[in-house]
Design the sequence.
């Protein structure tokens, strides 16, 4: 049992996600912060897991674990900041170095928790990908992250912001290149209404 008077800074630190803006190198018609992005990815990842289980009838994954990992998937950026994708993945050396920074940031965040909670959050922040089913959950979260980025590009384009045109094309191609049935279903059935008006989606 932990000391009742001891304070833990983990959730207060997570609250800082609202101050981290994404797409920092691009002109945005509407800013997107890390906190709202994480919610979007969690919703999409949960949907992908349900599509995986109930529509595609694949070997079931835990939709709630998928949603939880997605909710926390970018928390290390509280410490590292949102590094632009072209820089993060410019070459293998930078990619490897950034992964090390992310791993250290995850450990720093885990130290802000009581001992009795560290195990559960270790599973979310640094999942064991040697397990095939756990690896599948992680894959769906990664796909959801890309879909969220694609939707951001769509919304900016809808607002007549041409800044995101090439990013939208690149991200859309990267999603199709994954040959992910869950993503293809989501793109075909759930994405088109994002371009509709409130009256249209309320019918």
Sequence:
């Amino acid at each position: 049992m932990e000391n009742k008077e001891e304070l833990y800074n983990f959730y207060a630190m997570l609250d800082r996600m609202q101050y981290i803006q994404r797409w920092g190198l691009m002109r945005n018609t509407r800013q997107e912060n890390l906190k709202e992005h994480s919610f979007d990815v969690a919703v999409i990842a949960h949907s992908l897991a349900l599509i995986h289980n109930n529509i595609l009838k694949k070997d079931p994954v835990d939709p709630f674990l998928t949603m939880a990992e997605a909710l926390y998937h970018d928390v290390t950026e509280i410490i590292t900041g949102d590094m632009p994708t072209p820089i993060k993945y410019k070459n293998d050396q930078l990619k490897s170095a950034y992964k090390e920074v992310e791993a250290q940031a995850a450990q720093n965040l885990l130290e802000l928790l009581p001992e009795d909670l560290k195990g559960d959050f270790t599973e979310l922040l640094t999942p064991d990908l040697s397990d095939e089913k756990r690896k599948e959950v992680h894959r769906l979260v990664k796909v959801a992250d890309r879909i969220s980025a694609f939707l951001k590009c769509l919304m900016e384009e809808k607002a007549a912001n041409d800044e995101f045109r090439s990013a939208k094309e690149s991200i859309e191609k990267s999603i199709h290149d994954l040959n992910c049935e869950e993503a293809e279903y989501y793109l075909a059935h759930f994405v088109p209404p994002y371009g509709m008006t409130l009256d249209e989606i309320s019918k």
